Amino acid sequence: MVKTLLPFSLLTVTALPLLAADHEIVQKDRCFSKPEISIKVGDQIVFRNDDEVTHNVYSTTDGMGFDLKRQAPGASSTVPFSKEGTAEVQCSIHPKMKLIVHVTK
What we know:
The chain is mainly beta. Helices cover 13% and strands 42% of the residues.
């Protein structure tokens, strides 16, 4: 029975790095919680608005673009990153808000 479980255990352990991860970026005081973040291809960022104002988080980076539109206070939105590269994320309402997302293999 031990011989049967060992290959399954090894398969489970080796598959773990393939799972995507969620990373949270909070919007508070008209700022992102981090100016920069490094994630892996397939990971997602959850943008959570903990501010008292509406935000509009977006990126126009080629091949990595998205637009969350108006995000009310208390709202969360998830953005997957499926391509390697560097994306610049901003808020169209608050131009000083900037986040650099490094996506690696």
